Amino acid sequence: MRRSSERSGSDxxxxxxxxxxxxxxxxxxxxxxxxxxxxxxxxxxxAVWADWARYDLLGRIVNGGSYTLAEATTSDNRQSAIALLxxxxxIFGAFFFIRWFLQAYRNxxxxxxxxxxxxxxxxxxxxxxxxxxxxPKQIANEIWRASDxxxxxxxxxxxxxxxxxxxxxxxxxxxxNFISQIGARMAFHNDxxxxxxxxxxxxxxxxAIDIAAAVLAIVVILRITARxxxxxxxxxxxxxx
Length: 241
Hints:
By secondary structure, the protein is mostly helical. The chain has helices at residues 2-16, 27-62, 69-110, 121-124, 135-146, 164-189, 193-240. Helix 2 runs antiparallel to helix 7 (193-240) and helix 3 (69-110) packs parallel to helix 7. The radius of gyration is 22 Å and the shape is elongated.
């Protein structure tokens, strides 16, 4: 009796978050998100090169090697400029990706799926401390399962296997941010040449992993967009028949 009650409560919660919306193709939003993420990845590549050059310079300073004041000044200015460009790219990348992500989650209902959360969480979940570590991934899982073009016309099961690239993308995103934050704290608390060298190493690793995160995000966008459009087409044909 208790299990039946729990199941009923779970079903009602899912129905509460179901809305009657038409399917909207993701291709336009996907294009914007991909362009923004390509910019992020390109700047990350430039940042890795700059991080390595700075790491080498700081190594020479720490070990008593030769360097010039002009070289050090150029390195500082270059790092500041690249950091600013990365921040701007991140803002635009986040805007266009979340814009795509929101519509992908809204489409879940039109594709015959169910949602455990309101569609607003597909946007806000990225900005809530702590919760942002897992809630966006939960939503991505729901999007993936609901978008399966071969799924019977019934609510998807949570036991349905997930695409491994989703987990890899999310891991790269979390690890990249974590390492970059470590680098920032190291630079803030220890501004000696040796301390800056260690923080630069952290930035280098974080930027390198962020390249992978951006590339994998593009792959995720392309795959989910294609799956949703294929499923929508199949549902339209079945209704017409």
